[in-house]
């Protein structure tokens, strides 16, 4: 009888031996996990194939499970998402120590091989790029934004033009129930289009509908099989996995092609002495780069603006206070501009409080320790994905007085001016923080203040939609309708 046959016969005749064998096997696995190349941070148990997934089960989105686990295991928590090693950072001190004090170590993005390969055909984007190429592109994007006037009058005029047309389009349906998010998407896409390509689209232009359809497809949650293929690249040999993976990647292609077409359109009228927008800058610096991240930024801004509307339905007193401030300081005879911001501290503070509580970019974008590294005495293996829980910082009781209460006043100092506490980080922190922060803040303020100047925001249904978000690529409000009633 072979050794294997002997083992099988012993096991089948003695269930106690089977139990002992299984128990020893699990203990050895757990021990191996703890002892593999140094001390790992605490975290839930991890098993072969599924990793720590069993501990995240039962939540609508596995990532929602991070918070109860972090309460148990702490602000530096290690787990395995299936096969992938993952570090989850929570709380201001930890997040700051990682993203600012240890920025060199924590500023990579994970190497999602399939996605990254696709982008290479279109030039490197910023979001999923690493190393020298990412640094150069990021610098170029930030410099470019400054050169074309983000934060100055040039871009404000483009936003203001869009705000006026947006307000006018809502006024045509005054008092009717409106599904806001899709409308907002058209407006924020147009701001991006004006800044980047120097042109906007009419709200009923088929090109705009085409772009929205591409973006809808792109932002649909990925099927579980596609996520699995990213974690286990070898699974792509199986035809069903390959199929969903290809479908996912193909959804990005039309967006990138759309951008390429706009870039080509601009090339025909390019004059190196007149830089009109971002694409002209690209041409002037001889770059050919279709980066879809700008439209991701438009989606995030539209989502955030939608949160602002939903919060105003929940907090009509705050809405009224903003309106009174706008009436008093600006009046109703002309649009609100950025120059008015300093005299509208309550309105600005309301925008900030919605950003703090709604947490559109709740887990930032994944960071990575592609080479591994040491943090707080722990040794992290190479290819560790890092999830940064920004909501944990925005809800930290020792940083915010009654963090669960919606209170714009918390952002106004004793001198009546707006203050920005260090634990306020809706755009992330450190070298990977949002490159669109300045533009997004201008847009949010101008759209929000001008909507409140012109309309009362009223719920379209007797029951208010809950403030609990739906987690996809970003944290979005549940769909709802709103009425814009003329003031
Ligand atoms: C309210 C609107 C927005 C919010 C809340 C937001 C938030 C964020 C957050 C949390 C991150 C991740 C930071 C990290 O990984 O640590 C990010 C990254 C990024 N955002 Fe935004 N964003 C917004 C609008 C925009 C806009 C309008 C643009 C473009 C014009 C933009 C472009 C980017 C880019 C390119 C990155 C990646 C930066 C990098 O990897 O170096 N975002 N954003």
From TrEMBL:
This is Cytochrome P450. GO terms for molecular function: metal ion binding; monooxygenase activity. Belongs to the cytochrome P450 family. Its cofactor is heme. It comes from the Eukaryota. The chain crosses the membrane at residues 15-31. SUPFAM superfamilies: Cytochrome P450. Keywords: Heme, Iron, Membrane, Metal-binding, Monooxygenase, Oxidoreductase, Transmembrane, Transmembrane helix. InterPro entries: Cyt_P450, Cyt_P450_E_grp-I, Cyt_P450_sf, Cytochrome_P450_fam2. Heme binds at residue 434. The keyword Transmembrane applies.
